[in-house]
Amino acid sequence: MGVFPKQRLILFLLVATIAAGFFLYKERAIFLSVEQKLESAYHKVVDEAVFNPEPLLRLFKETGAPLDSRLVINFTNTERTTRNLNALSANTLLDSAALKKAEDILERDYFEHTAPDGIKASDLVSDAGYQFLLVGENLALGNFDDEADLVAAWMDSPGHRANILQPKYKDIGVAAVRGEYEGKDVWVSVQIFAVPSSECEAPSPRQATVIEEMRIAVKLLRDEIEEKKNELDENKKNPERYNKIVDEYNSLVGEYEELTEDLKNSITTYNSAVRSYNGCIEALQ
């Protein structure tokens, strides 16, 4: 009879030791603060008014030769390439915008970069379906000996010359239309220069959406981990249940740490793309 209490004591100590093992867990829930902000990209167009010199009038000549828009582009590119500038690419969408401008001038009998209803070159270019970062316009009204004479007249005007020799431009559209202006038979010529939006690679809107989805997922995981911590506190006297919650808790913590690291890397990558895009935009100004 005297041995039995000793055996009970040994058994009790053994059970107590095993039970204590259930209460051991690695608390790894470090709530990382992912507060990096997404930088906003400029979706900004440089004001085309800066690149619209005063329209060129030549009304002292009674008659002029027919003007071919392709030859106007050729002579324009000659002025550029002889100064080691890139030749401009003819663009049909810009041609369409230029033609609309020329016809509108003759139809409504005005000669300004801004139409009576406020429409500008940038509006015409957008309506034509050309996405741009920079746009400029040269206008001429009158009669010229030929395409070379027209381009030479623009080159003699500092503002028009600056447009023709602007190194940032990539594309060009031209229209030359004959009609009547203030009772005179004239040619209206329009050059539209542009830098396409593809010149600066914008950050993907989808990437920003994914980042916001990841933020939500991180928050949900954080809330779930907090709930597990509360469950641990509530089940300290239930070793079997407690041990199960510990495994679930540590699994969630591992998932949380992995997701927050992915989120931080995604934000860093996105912000780098934004800075690159904004630097490209700023270089156009």
Automatic annotation (TrEMBL):
Keywords: Coiled coil. InterPro entries: CAP_dom, CAP_sf. It comes from the Bacteria. CDD domains: CAP_bacterial. The keyword Transmembrane helix does not apply. Residues 74-188 form the SCP domain. Residues 211-262 form a coiled coil. It holds the Pfam family CAP. This is SCP domain-containing protein. It comes from Candidatus Taylorbacteria bacterium RIFCSPLOWO2_01_FULL_45_15b. The lineage of its organism: Bacteria, Candidatus Tayloriibacteriota.
